[in-house]
């Protein structure tokens, strides 16, 4: 394929992670060094920055300062949860994006995010193709949910999983320290897929006694019985639950006992939260035990101080590969990982069609969950353990993380 | 003073921390190496282990395995919150303790804990003195609350403070990432003293916009106005609150809007929690903004993976000093720290009378809090920053912390 010269836009979208900036750095550094790319722009708050003509001039950033991005959590360029309409219904946003691409001669678009972001990426790619505007569009995956199809795992997952496993180990030590009974319920992110909650099992002998994923319908009576059995045997019980656990009718357990009010985000997803507190109240009422609910909240996705160096290195490589492949002629693909674990862990980059990835959710295989649906089997451990290896090389300043301090100078359009 | 030969008991009490086992290790290693000490026992679950004649034989532990205690969170010997009665009212517990001490020829008693534990320690010391039983009793401080009188700071505080400052930095990155308004309320432990909440200020440019400590009466209207001002200016606001904030009448804010039920622990303290959720609901109602409440919960006291090495080293030294001083003749004292910060940070060990330390709470000085009562001044930063220096040397195994695995063999009495 012939060389395509032009500017590039890099955008970040969806919930931030500890590793999304590592991918951004991989893409930014590769773009800055690539002669086909004439200018490197960062979209302020993802696709919203394109629509609003708010682009950062990344050529103006200091290279040494940029390099700290690898160890800076959250999305340095800002994120959004804006959902593009179906172009067959309303193509106004797409025409605006095309206008901006033409204005800045953008020939490369790199979008870094989860399912919804790959959907955005896919729609833009198809629109540009249909309208004959030559622009190479590449998706760079990112999600602590680890639910993107086609890839062995997703950038961001390993770091979040390391946080979850580490914190579960620490909670195990703490929650069992008194000579009185105690049930601890830990709520972990994951709306439809239980990958992150499964990571609690990586804590091995310090793992929660019971782990519930949304892959298996949650039955309150069975859960209460399971918990009671462990509690009566040990005087303690630690239970990990995915925020998205739901009963056989699909009703979220987080909504049990909550009277009325439900909120939905702009993608139409029900906003979850408060599950640990809800379950704690139910367990307390049924067992009479002392119960504590713990929600990892934002920390599970932004605790960069305990990021997996494997995850950061792979995330960086994914960002770099997106640029390298695009400038070499590839378009309409997402960078993914193809891994083998038979003779040690080996991870290779792969290119996946965007339309297959977009909006397909990959679940934890049922055969990795025990028959009772309250624990993980060795299959998952073998899968997950390599992803959390390596301590972050994050630089410290005054005993605290040193984050990238970018200038973020807006392009005067 | 003449040499006193006999066994020693080491006990841990109160809420666990990331550093209490470092102090235990300092005491255990010094005791194992000291010729005056004939046997080294660990009390199972603090003073309860003495009362119940449940002692671990620490001479039977592997020394290399023991050394991992320095990096193992929570209380390895188990903890309790048992409160001894006033010996003038009911001395049954004290007579039982004396009986056990006589049974095992215990001549050294080291008790590792916070205010209530120093009170226990003090009462035992005075009872033994009064009853003419020669036993040297030493307190080893520990509390993430940092509220023990007489000492510059307390073992455990630096590590918890490092967790709080680090997590606040990460939350700052995450909570500001979207292009929509958001108010984040972070709840940090601290019943009567705001030391740990103050540590949020160590995050510097990434610190919460507003920080409220229990040292200043909390006024809901002023708080709502403060928050609104920040939110209207920045579109975001991050607020840190101490769990113990209360209004001018002494009513805990956590109890606002909570109908009825209040629980108290065995020391008569009101059990707090749910403050972040309570405040989030109030702020949401008043401002209409999207509000998120985050509770650090147990993690702030057990997150050993982000412990301060300074704290661990000092905690170890405090445990060792207790044994060294006791065998040299000292009794009825707590080991404390005397520090200077004028020409760099310098920390020396000091011996403090137990009865002064017991049950006196040290608060954050008013002059370190800004006049508005919603932020910290440089005086606190200069105080706190040296305490969070140094990354933990915790060993990792398979990408996760390597905790001590003790045999904990019970002494056959």
Judged by helices, strands and strand pairing, the structural class of chain A is alpha/beta
Low-confidence stretches of chain A: 258-266, 269-273
Number of DSSP E strands of chain A: 13
Helix content of chain A: 25-40%
| Quaternary structure classification | homodimer
Principal-axis shape of chain A: elongated
For the largest interface in this structure, which chains are involved and how many residues does each contribute?
A-B, 57 and 57 residues
Spatial order of the strands in the main sheet of chain A?
3-2-1-4-5-10-11
Rg of Cα set of chain A: 22 Å
How are the SSEs placed, and which strands pair?
2 copies of one chain form a homodimer.
Chain A: E1 6-12, H1 20-33, E2 37-43, H2 47-51, E3 55-57, H3 63-66, H4 92-103, E4 106-113, H5 115-130, E5 136-141, H6 157-175, E6 182-188, H7 195-198, E7 210-212, H8 220-234, E8 236-242, H9 275-287, E9 291-295, H10 299-302, H11 309-327, E10 333-340, E11 346-353, H12 354-357, H13 378-384, E12 396-397, E13 400-401
Parallel strand pairs in A: 1-2, 1-4, 4-5, 5-10, 6-8, 6-9, 7-8
Antiparallel strand pairs in A: 2-3, 10-11, 12-13
Helix pairs in contact in A: 1-11
């Amino acid at each position: 394929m012939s060389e395509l010269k032009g500017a590039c836009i890099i955008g970040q979208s969806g919930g931030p992670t500890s590793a999304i900036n590592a991918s951004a750095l991989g893409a930014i550094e590769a773009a800055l060094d690539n002669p086909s790319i004439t200018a490197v722009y960062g979209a302020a708050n993802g696709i919203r920055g394109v629509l609003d003509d708010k682009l950062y001039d990344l050529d103006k950033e200091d290279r040494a300062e940029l390099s700290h991005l690898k160890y800076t959590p959250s999305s340095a360029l800002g994120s959004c949860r804006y959902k593009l309409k179906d172009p067959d219904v309303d193509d106004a946003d797409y025409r605006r994006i095309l206008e901006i691409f033409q204005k800045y001669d953008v020939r490369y678009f790199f979008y870094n995010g989860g399912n919804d972001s790959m959907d955005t990426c896919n729609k833009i790619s198809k629109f540009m193709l249909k309208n004959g505007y030559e622009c190479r569009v590449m998706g760079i995956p990112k999600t602590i949910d680890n639910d993107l199809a086609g890839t062995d795992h997703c950038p961001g997952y390993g770091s979040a999983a390391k946080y979850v496993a580490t914190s579960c180990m620490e909670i195990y030590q703490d929650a069992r320290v008194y000579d009185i009974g105690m049930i601890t319920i830990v709520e972990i992110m994951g709306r439809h897929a239980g990958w992150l909650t499964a990571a609690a099992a990586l804590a091995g002998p310090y793992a929660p006694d019971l782990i519930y994923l949304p892959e298996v319908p949650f039955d309150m009576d069975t859960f209460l019985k399971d918990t009671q059995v462990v509690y009566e045997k040990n005087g303690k019980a630690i239970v990990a639950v995915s925020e998205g656990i739901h009963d056989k009718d699909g009703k979220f357990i987080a909504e049990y006992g909550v009277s009325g009010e439900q909120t939905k985000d702009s993608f139409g997803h029900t906003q979850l939260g408060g599950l640990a507190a809800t379950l704690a109240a139910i367990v307390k009422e049924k067992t009479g035990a002392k119960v504590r609910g713990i929600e990892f909240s934002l920390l599970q996705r932004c605790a960069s101080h305990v990021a997996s160096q494997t995850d950061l290195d792979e995330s960086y490589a994914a960002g770099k590969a997106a640029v390298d492949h695009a400038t070499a002629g590839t378009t309409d693909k997402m960078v993914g990982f193809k891994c083998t674990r038979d003779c040690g862990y080996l991870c290779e980059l792969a290119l996946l069609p965007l339309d297959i990835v977009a909006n397909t959710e990959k679940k934890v295989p049922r055969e990795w969950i025990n028959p009772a649906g309250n624990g993980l089997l060795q299959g998952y451990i073998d899968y997950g353990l390599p992803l959390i290896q390596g301590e972050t090389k994050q630089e410290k300043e005054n005993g605290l993380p040193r984050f990238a301090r970018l200038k973020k100078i807006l392009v005067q359009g």
